[in-house]
Amino acid sequence: MSKLAISDKSDISIVLCGAAGQGIQTVEQFLTHILHEAGYYVAALKEYMSRVRGGTNSTEIRISSDKVKAYVERIDIFIPFNKTAISRQRKRITKETLIIGEPENILHELDVNEYNIIEISWTKIAEEIGHRIYSNTIAAGVITELFNIDDELGKKYLRDRFTRKGEEIVNKNIEAFRKGNEIANEIAKSKGIEIKIKPKKKIEKEIMVNGADIVGMGAIAGGCNFICSYPMSPSTGVLNFLAKHSADFDILVEQAEDEIAAINAGLGAAYAGARAMVTTSGGGFALMGEGISLSGMIETPIVIHIAQRPGPATGLPTRTEQGDLELALYSGHGDFPRIILAPGKLKDAFYITQEAFNLAEKFQVPVIILTDQFFVDLYYNIPSLDLSNVSIDKYIVKTETDYQRYKLTKNGISPRGIPGFGDGLVRADSDEHDEDGFITEDLENTRVKMVEKRLKKLEEVKKNVIPPDLIGSKDYETLVIGWGSTCNAITEALTSIGDKNISFLHFKQVYPLHEKTKEYLEKAKKLIIVENNVTSQFGKLIKLYTGLEIENKILKFTGMPFSVEELTEKIKQIVEGKK
């Protein structure tokens, strides 16, 4: 059974499951690093409960000789580290799944005669080595040996990771790793396992990165030199990344007392000339509503990253959802322009975040980047980034003595000066103001002109919209529409279906919509929209601006991302008229 389940596959899904604090993330980091170094395409994603210790968390690692970037339901190798792991993943475990672990974590749920079970007493072996903590390293040794990975890669990783803890710890981990190798050899012989996935040495030069880090890298490339945020899961990874590299890139990093302080600090820094950013999640962004309006009124650029999680209120703080599009779109009181971006691939996140700073500066508006928990925690390898076309576009002018901060212009964009750069006085006020920045009560004249001036910028923004990606044939009959993090799962599902009449339109900018959106949609005989929310927020936005109702909706709001299998099945049902 194991030979059929494992040996003949070109894409293997490994799931590690256990309690918070058991080191699941440590094993994930070990395996993704070593497998990538060995030349495999790797994607890793996690789901975890909102608690520091206990509960049951899992990590899925996909290994392939081809690019993999999406979540799958299928489990080929399952390693349970506690007694609740089996029940937690019960729906995903089949009789083809190879289950490796301690008997007490498996046999109370599954019959050894019906399932592919290999009993290994990790804890006992680890305690013989010196401590039960080494059981994770044993497990990592088992997996790497099943893939015939050079054990020197594993030893080097362990030395690099544990050197600061002393030679004894390094040696104990290497001993545990070797023990895992020995166990894997015994398993391979007894079960007839021969993994046929072949590594591709060329990908060794690719970088292994997650969503939070790539957003941070994009911010650095965009010239970000100020970030102020209040930590909030799942957005904090971006703050951590920029803090870690702040000294290298002259970034001022401040942890604020709350989100209200964070956005106001960001606006203050931007007023002084910084390229400022804040990172938060839906609940934190809700507190920033007045600050967003302030950005609109004083026409001060700022980049806001929102890592979405399910709401309302605290909701599911460690899960994923695309539920904050309307919050981003309608946040703040009054009418003023904004830009909303939503990368779908990790590589896109770098370039989109980099460009977000240029767009904010050019149009003097808030630019919002929407990701989600699934996206920021997702790891996979990508080619080295091309920086040849990356530029930091500067729009700040040196002021004259007669400088007017809110000068009326044909396109609504006033020359932006900053204090101390030139001879002019740079006024800013949250009240309605005239061209010089003085508060005004001239309702019929100045107020109207200023409102119209600010909204004129939206027309200029529309000329610079990032176009959606059409994946598939231009001569489609069915068009699947998605935005943000659903990109990879939809793409892989359509590859699985293999119908050339189905194409995919992925939006990386969700507001304003690209001018050809309606043209794309009207060309299709059947439309399907895929969203990780309950009301099809992007579908409503499309209807608002194009008048087109997308009848076929695939929506998910469990807190989990779409799997390739479920999208494959649901899209096929709609195309075949069975749904």
Can you offer a commentary on this structure?
The chain is an alpha/beta fold and 579 residues long. The protein has four domains: 204 residues, Pyruvate-ferredoxin Oxidoreductase, domain 3; 175 residues, Thiamin diphosphate (ThDP)-binding fold, Pyr/PP domains (Rossmann fold), CATH 3.40.50; 69 residues, no CATH class; 107 residues, Rossmann fold. An eight-stranded mixed beta sheet has the order 6-5-4-1-3-2-14-7. The radius of gyration is 26 Å and the shape is globular.
Give the structure's gist in a few sentences.
The protein is of the alpha/beta class. It contains 21 helices and 20 strands.
Structural category: alpha/beta
Report the CATH topology name of the largest domain: Pyruvate-ferredoxin Oxidoreductase, domain 3
Query: What percent of residues are in strands?
Result: 15-25%
Total beta strands: 20
Count of structural domains: 4
- Mean residue pLDDT: 94
CATH architecture of the largest domain: 3-Layer(aba) Sandwich
Shape: globular
Q: End-to-end distance, in Å?
A: 35 Å
Low-pLDDT residue spans: none
Alpha plus pi helix count: 21
CATH class of the largest domain: Alpha Beta
Name of the CATH homologous superfamily of the largest domain: Pyruvate-ferredoxin oxidoreductase, PFOR, domain III
